[in-house]
Amino acid sequence: MKDLGKKIKKDAGNLKDKIKGNVKEKVGKATGNQEMEFEGKLKNKVTKAKEDAADLKEDILEKVNDKMDKKDSKKK
């Protein structure tokens, strides 16, 4: 259950970062502030990269656990 709490916290943080990025990008675009628009786009890209890395980590852990379980079941 501890891991679920961490995942929820990370997901909430990522959502917050996505919202911040989108707001900065839109405000920057609307006001002609290229720096703010760029910061928003950058925040969105970084958030996406964090999500992709977390998904990859989760997939790898799942596959490693499956392999270990199969190996353990063969020993019995």
TrEMBL record:
InterPro entries: CsbD (IPR008462), YjbJ_sf (IPR036629). Residues 14-60 form the CsbD-like domain. SUPFAM superfamilies: Hypothetical protein YjbJ (SSF69047). Belongs to the UPF0337 (CsbD) family. This is CsbD-like domain-containing protein. The lineage of its organism: Bacteria, Bacillati, Bacillota, Clostridia, Lachnospirales.
